[in-house]
Amino acid sequence: AAGVPMSRALGILSREATRTAPKKLWAIIHDQVSGGMALADALGHHPQAFSPIYVAMVRAGETGGFLDVVLEQIATFRAREADLKSRVRAALTYPIILAVLAAGILVFLLTFFIPRFSQMFAEFGGSLPVLTRYIVAVSELLVKYWLVFILGIILIFFAVQRMLSSEEGRRTMAAFVLRLPLFGTGMARFALVRFCRMLGTLVGAGVPLIASLRVAKEA
Q: Whole-angstrom Cα distance, residue 6 to residue 161?
């Protein structure tokens, strides 16, 4: 927008980057654009850094001659998205901390206090209430088979990771998350906001509606 040539602007980005990875990335893009490649094509060669959504927007800006407007819209969208994510994280931090503390205290009670109380109950004799017997049984299982529980948790973690590595697995997990009470509704609304913002940004950048829908669905 200030009239700085593209090649020089990319060189400045490479020189001013504070971290090594972005510095190298912008240097590569600078060389590609200086060699005659379109900026959108150069960004498309690095999908780990630039999503197809932003590449499509840049391509539309280059074609229509309003690249500076598109880049400003991408920056605005990223800032809004970062703000929305930070609000969601802030809202979830306190409940997650409480859940972790509660789980830790529960495990501590089941493995440390309940075994001692169960010995006292056994010495006193008599029958215990049904709920108390269940708690004592869970405590005994946890004490005896704690290694099995830990291995089970690790196996579940790796199984979920492997499932998320495939498209079908991600769809299954997404369907499960959306069915969760409260949390699923929040995730659905978050996805809707992200889609609408992306679609609005694309249409505002001059991308045709059909192409915008095709790109925004990836959001």
A: 41
Six token digits for residue 177? 């998350």
Q: Is 53:199 a contact under the CB 8 Å cutoff?
A: no
pLDDT(100) > 90:
yes
> What pTM was computed for the model?
0.58
Lowest pLDDT segment from 76-90, 157-171, 182-196, 204-218 = 204-218
DSSP code string of 49-67:
TS-HHHHHHHHHHHHHT-H
Number of H helices, E strands in the chain: 11, 0
Task: Assign 3-class secondary structure to 84-140.
Answer: HHHHHHHHHHHHHHHHHHHHHHHHHHHHHHHHHHHHHHHHHCCCCCHHHHHHHHHHH
> Could you tell me the two tokens for 105?
């205290």
Please compute, for residue 151, the number of CA atoms within 13 A of its CA located in the half-sphere on the CB side.
Answer: 4
126, pLDDT greater than 70: no
Closest CA to 64 of 199, 200, 198, 205: 205
Q: How far apart are CA 79 and CA 201, in angstroms?
A: 13
In the structure encoding, which two tokens stand for residue 218, read together?
A: 């990836």
| Phi, psi for 42 (deg, rounded to 5) | -65, -45
Mean pLDDT of all residues in 75-99: 88
User: In 10 A of CB 120, how many CB atoms?
Assistant: 8
Averaged pLDDT for residues 138-155: 88
